Structure formats: structure tokens, C-alpha cells
Amino acid sequence: MIDLALSNGQAFVWNAEDWLTLRKDYRIIGELVGCLPSLPRQEIFHGLPLLLSPEEVTLLLEKKIARLIELPCLQQKPSDDLMKAFNSYREKMLIEQEECLVETRKAQIVELMDKIVEGKRRKLLGLKSTKKELRKPLDDSIAEAIKNVEIDRDALFAEEMKKIPKLDPAEALIQIHTAYPWAKKEDIREAEWNYPQSPEDKLRCKVYKDLWEKEFYITPGDKFGGDFLVYPGDPIMFHSQFIVQCKDKNEDITIPDCCGQCRVACHVRKTMLYAYTSDDEQTISYQSIHYENSNMI
């Protein structure tokens, strides 16, 4: 099951594979709220963790797709065993990066070996080997002298390899984990989810579940004054079609509210839907409203 990490009453997804599974297989969108490691100071694009809405969490728990967990160990001082595991991992990462550095530098030396040999020959003859000097044409006698200088390519290659510096730990790349990598079974504790509580929250969950079971993609609708935005496909590729407002079946809607919400929906080329429970309190019914003869729909 997919683990949802509970923190301060909200559920987060930290694992990248779980995020992709939720989006592709279960049409759960959520909201990425983390900064990007390479661009931490910008606010346009976001990364993990994924913050889930209360309705999404309720659905995932009800459908047995995910479980809600807590990691109390993260609130405590790291144990000696955890510190050893962390330091061992850092050392392993440093060794792997050193090996990568050596292999990369080795490939560069092999590629530039002819130029390195030429530069060595010029140095033995007391000639300059700057880029500017290398571009200058040589006299035939000097060119012939350079060719006649014998160089042991293997020895020169070994000499260049010895020049590769050791990787300083302070210069090593640091991996920023998107999920806690050292969690053990005994560290994980299943948490309780106390949502929904109020009648309004229960109605929102029922509406969300009904739309989800109709195979729509659903996101929060706050930006357009609704409860949900409903998409026919992934929001990356589709615009939303409906603005959904959850209403109690006995609740009155004033004319100004109805006109204002309908006008917003019409302006952004969407249909306003009012969702409410039918008489059996289980089935969700919908009422669509839009301006008649509007040239914006």
C-alpha cells in the first residue's frame, strides 16, 4: 500500500514512485508543495512532497489504496545506529562520486591525448604551448623537430592520471531524499484519520467520491469560487469543464450568489454545477446552471 505521511493534521506523499502511481493509476492530483533542489528560491515550479486534500486522503483510505502512517522516530534525536548508517551511506556516496570523477577525467585524457603529447614535445623543446602559440604556423624545421621528439604515451597517460585530485568531502554532491530511507517496520505507526466530521465535510467527501468513481480528475476549486474543478483527463493536458459547488439540498441560494457564480463559470468557459444529496441521503445529484444564449459557452 502507498504510505501517506501524517504531519500536523495533513497527509503528504514523499516517495516519487508513489506520486506517479497515484496520478497515473488512481487520478489523484494533490498539490506539490516542496522546493526543487536545483532551484530552491523560485516559486513557479514545485516538487515533492505532495500535499493531499482531505477528500483525497479519505477516498484513498476508504478504497484501501493507501494507509496513513506516522514516524515518531523523526521527532527524536537520531540513535547511534542511525548515525552509523547515515555516515556509512555518506562514505559510500563519496567513494562512488570519486570513481565517477576518475572515469570522467580518464575519458577526457584519452580524448585529448594527442594534444597532450604535442604540448609535452613543445615543452621539451622550450616552445610555448598556449592556445595562441598553437594556432601560429610553424617553420618546417621546428615542425620536424617536434615530430622527432619521442614520448612514452603510456608513461605520460599515467602521469596525467596521477594529477587527478582526491574528491574533498566538502565538494561532494549531497543527495536530498524525497522519502525517509532508513525507516524500519518498528519505526512506522499507523495513524488515525479524523475527517470528515461536519455535515459539510461529509457532503464534500461524498461528492468527491462520486465524481472520482465517474472517472473524472478532480482538483480544489478555490481559484474560481467553487469546491472542486472537474477535468475530463489529466489537468496537464485538459482544461476543467465544471466548477462544482457542494450544497445542502435544503439550503437556499440567493439570486446574487447564483448570478455571480454562474458569471464566473461562464467567463472562464466552464459549467457551474451544484452538487447535493438526494432524498435517500446517499445518491449525489447535480444541477447545472449557465446563462441562456451566452456567446461565452
From TrEMBL:
Identification of the protein by name: tRNA-splicing endonuclease subunit Sen34
Q: Name one GO biological process term.
A: tRNA-type intron splice site recognition and cleavage
Q: Does the keyword Lyase apply?
A: yes
Keyword field contains Nucleotidyltransferase: no
Q: Which residues form the active site?
A: Y231, H239, K270
Family, as annotated: Belongs to the tRNA-intron endonuclease family.
Lineage, uppermost ranks: Eukaryota, Metazoa, Ecdysozoa, Arthropoda, Hexapoda
InterPro entries, alphabetically? tRNA_endonuc-like_dom_sf, tRNA_intron_Endo_cat-like_sf, tRNA_intron_Endonuc_cat-like, tRNA_splic, TSEN34, TSEN34_N
A Gene Ontology cellular-component term:
tRNA-intron endonuclease complex
Print the keywords alphabetically. Answer: Lyase, tRNA processing
Its biological purpose: Constitutes one of the two catalytic subunit of the tRNA-splicing endonuclease complex, a complex responsible for identification and cleavage of the splice sites in pre-tRNA. It cleaves pre-tRNA at the 5'- and 3'-splice sites to release the intron. The products are an intron and two tRNA half-molecules bearing 2',3'-cyclic phosphate and 5'-OH termini. There are no conserved sequences at the splice sites, but the intron is invariably located at the same site in the gene, placing the splice sites an invariant distance from the constant structural features of the tRNA body.
Enzyme Commission number: 4.6.1.16
Q: Where is the tRNA intron endonuclease catalytic domain?
A: 203-286
A GO MF label = nucleic acid binding
Q: Which domain of life is it from?
A: Eukaryota
Q: What are the TSEN34 N-terminal domain coordinates in residue numbering?
A: 2-70
